[in-house]
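Annex B. Sample input.
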Amino acid sequence: MMCLLKLNLNIPIVNMDIDIVLENNRKNFKIVKNNEVLVTGSKLKWYSHETDFFFSNKTYKIKKKSFWSSRYNIFESGYLKGEIRFLGKYFFSFLGKDKPNITYTMSIKKPRGWFRAETLYTLNDSNNNYVLSVNYKWKKWKEVYKADIGESIYENYELLAYTLFLIRLKHYRDSAATGV
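Annex B, continued. Sample output.
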């Protein structure tokens, strides 16, 4: 069993300059920075979690391993690149085939109390270094996502797309558990 605790969650929410725009009934998404679209993606079928996205002239696909599995394969231009594991209620990890020793873990924090819809999702690497964060909240009956990528070597919007997939997966699982 992996121990993935002790995270630094003192990350400012106000400096988030990346917008994540959901369109077409949450089916399509765009990651936008300074009015420039960096990543575009879509969920192919309403009943499936399979997601395609395009970043820096490459096509990425996130597809479930099997019907009963809680693991997802990541394909880059048709070749297996890595795997996303669902490790429990609040922990996810991403294992890359090109960097097998790096595991990314997403943690969840409600900065303004458990009764608020605002949630801060933070992605850390296996050395517990801050990689990125996504702030989620409801505003005027719409989901609003703002993101921030850390000031390190991780200027990588591909990880932001994986994190968005994990956030949406968590929302689907939470709504299925409550019967909504």
